[in-house]
Write a structure and sequence with these properties.
Blueprint (H helix, E strand, L loop, with lengths): L14 H24 L12 H8 L3 H13 L3 E4 L3 E4 L4 E4 L6 H7 L4 E12 L2 H7 L6 E11 L2 E11 L16 H7 L7 E10 L2 H7 L6 E10 L5 E10 L3 E4 L26
Parallel strand pairs: 3-10
Antiparallel strand pairs: 1-2, 4-5, 5-6, 6-9, 7-8, 8-9
Length: about 280
């Protein structure tokens, strides 16, 4: 037998004490369910037990369970279907916007099995956009690598990479379904990517991207446009990519900018870039 939260009073018997105790109880349920999801004991689309069953499992009242579920729904951990039940949501993966890491390396650091499905790998001629992005002559040879990126076998991103062929001749001889592009550039060609400029925006997936990523249109994707450079400043790669909006979220470390003396705040100019992709 267990007591409902509304029936619990601590030794002081005050309403505030009861409210604090209720908060502690529901947070305990929140963390217990979250831990089950993060550990893989509860998997994507798995239906949770009923509120009544969860009340018995956690020895709390149904109001406490309902409050915990509401918070987990707001956090994107669970979803509720009226009249059907509560289900586990496919969890988003944190991806840093602070560091230049290849997709393969970054996802492996997060314990994911990474692979690719190569859709196209060929040499093309630089059009005006690629000529400007890669800082090469119009018509110069460009390596074009078009891949679907998979995590644990699930399609999660589309990537179109363009590289100056003169900087990595013969690179298409390598199998980029299992090989990291950045690792190949660094170890085979001694072309170490050093820094990049990147634009991130939300967009609606095209029918082709929706099909490749297994999305139901209209679906939101995160769109990336990145120029990667060597330490010398030479562009080694230009890439367009789309990541599933339901599988990733991005984080960045922010630092308050002050004057050199640290005595006054300085407003940085807002930089806007308009471009056609």
């Amino acid at each position: 037998m267990f007591l409902h939260v509304d029936e619990i009073w601590n030794s002081t018997g005050t309403p505030m004490a009861r409210e604090q105790h209720a908060k502690t109880l529901y947070q305990t349920v929140v963390e217990a369910i979250r831990q089950q999801v993060e550990s893989g004991n509860l998997i994507m689309d798995q239906k949770l037990p009923s509120e009544s069953a969860l009340s018995k499992i956690h020895a709390v009242g149904r109001n406490t369970v309902r409050r915990a579920i509401h918070e987990l729904v707001n956090d994107g951990v669970l979803r509720t279907v009226p009249g059907v039940g509560t289900f586990v949501v496919n969890q988003r993966l944190d991806k840093s916007a602070d560091y230049l890491l290849g997709f393969t390396h970054e996802m492996q650091l997060r314990g994911k099995d990474v692979s690719s499905r190569v859709l196209e790998a060929k040499i093309i001629a630089a059009d005006p956009l690629l000529s400007r992005r890669l800082q090469i002559q119009l018509g110069a040879e460009v390596v074009f690598l078009y891949r679907v990126r998979l995590m644990d076998g699930e399609p999660t991103a589309i990537e179109r990479a363009y590289l100056p062929h003169q900087l990595c001749p013969g690179i298409l001889e390598y199998d980029f379904s299992t090989t990291s592009l950045y690792e190949t550039l660094s170890t085979i060609y001694r072309r170490m990517p050093d820094h990049a400029e990147q634009i991130i925006e939300a967009g609606i997936a095209t029918p082709e991207v929706s099909t490749l990523l297994g999305l139901t249109p209209p679906a939101v994707v995160l769109m990336f446009h990145r120029e990667t450079r060597l330490a010398s400043g030479q562009v080694i790669e230009y890439v367009d990519s789309e990541l599933r909006g339901d599988r990733f979220r991005f984080y960045t470390n922010l630092q308050l900018h002050t004057s050199a003396a640290g005595a006054a705040f300085q407003m940085l100019p807002l930089q806007l870039e308009a471009d056609v992709y």
